[in-house]
Amino acid sequence: MIEDVKIAPSILSADIANLARDLDAISSADFVHVDVMDGHFVPNLTFGPNVVKAAKANSDLPADVHLMITNPDETAEEYARAGADIVTFHWEAATHAHRVVMGIHEAGAKAGISLNPATPASVLEDIISDLDLVLVMSVNPGFGGQKFIPNTLRKLRQVRALAAERGVSPLVEVDGGVGAANAAQIVEAGASVLVAGSAVYGSEDRAAAISQIRDAGRQGLTRRA
Asked: In the predicted model, what is the mean pLDDT of residues 136-149?
């Protein structure tokens, strides 16, 4: 059976002063995507573990936490203990990626690795079997509202091929410039989770936006099959 397309709206585009309201507006999604930025790994500063706790307190959706920070080796487990269901860190930032993955698992969360646009899928060869999720960045991380980088589609196909070769099936997530207009081709290339920030929160009807992106993605699933 082919998996359904999962939607993870990013609260980077939400109104944090009205977080409970904006989380309720995306209750039809599959995850809450929490972008953690430290002002060093990326040129922006956003959330910490307290926002993860707040998201968990105000939503029944799993918390999909994306760490864009320079020191995941030291802090990734803290986000798992704060309630994150999935903790994803950047390959480019970790000194001991396998150790970070094991620590996240031991702290009770699923673990993912994210790849920047210039990082090849091949870096995952020796660790993909330990991952629950692979996040392929389709923009350079740090800011919402950027345009999708077309070469992401080739990388998605490479990640899917590598997973199949290893006999594993991590969730494959895409973050950056995702919307109803390109969801089908992204899913066809191999994605199973679509992160959407401005495409959801920029719409007056957030539930309708989620539905439109999901329906478009399902067209890609049909083509992939």
From this structure: 86
Least-confidence region, from 9-13, 120-124, 125-129, 145-149: 145-149
Give the N- to C-terminal CA distance of the chain in Å, as an integer: 10
Alpha-carbon distance 91 to 114, whole Å? 6
Query: Does 132 qualify as catalytic in the annotation?
Result: no
Task: Tell me whether residue 35 is one of the annotated catalytic residues.
Answer: yes
- Tally of CB atoms within 10 A around 16: 12
Give the total residue count for the chain. 225
Residue from 22, 30, 35, 132 carrying the catalytic annotation: 35
pTM: 0.95
Q: Which DSSP symbol is given to 116?
A: -
Q: Which is nearest to 89 in space by CA: 62, 56, 119?
A: 119
Catalytic pick among 22, 30, 64, 175: 175
User: Measured between alpha carbons, how far is 51 from 37 in angstroms, rounded to an integer?
Assistant: 12
Q: Where are the beta strands (DSSP E) in 14-59?
A: 32-37
Alpha-carbon distances of 216 from 24, 119, 171, 219, rounded to whole Å: 23, 27, 18, 5
pLDDT band at 1 (very low <50, low <70, confident <90, very high): very low
CA 47 vs CA 71, 116, 132, 159: distances in Å: 15, 20, 23, 29
Half-sphere exposure of 169 (CA within 13 A, CB side): 3
